[in-house]
Fold this sequence. Notes:
Number of helices: 2
Number of strands: 3
Distance between the termini: 79 Å
CATH superfamily: Glycoprotein, Type 4 Pilin
CATH class: Alpha Beta
Largest sheet: 3 strands, antiparallel
Shape: elongated
Strand order of the largest sheet: 1-2-3
Radius of gyration: 29 Å
Strand content: 5-15%
Structural class: mainly alpha
Amino acid sequence: MGNGYRELRRLSSQRGFTLIEIMVVVVILGILVAIVAPNVIGKIDDAQITKVKTDLRAIESSLKFYRIDNFAYPTTEQGLDALVTRPADPNIKNWSRGGYMDRLPEDPWGNAYLYLNPGTHGEIDVYTLGKSGQPGGEELESDIGNWDL
């Protein structure tokens, strides 16, 4: 019984962290977050723009393969779905059996990419309305399209 009593007494005599020590650690963590957070947030925005540009290039390449097979781009009404699902148009005779894309990607903000044929910026337009989901805007809120590539 003597060893258990000494162990209990030894544990009760140890002191924990003081309030000042805890506050110093919290302040240091706050400073680190203040320094690191802006750099990380900026990188997230850059990554979203990079994803959009990569998706637009992939969609545009698939549209070019569609055009090679069918001698025309899908109509605006057929949309980008024509890259995944065969359109009901009887004039489409050379549609690729596996489709031109496995699935249509979404922009980083969860919206579908938009498509116009004929486009207002070129022969075809593939674009996203940006983070806002509304036409126009600035920076991440702005439209990003294949005309920006």
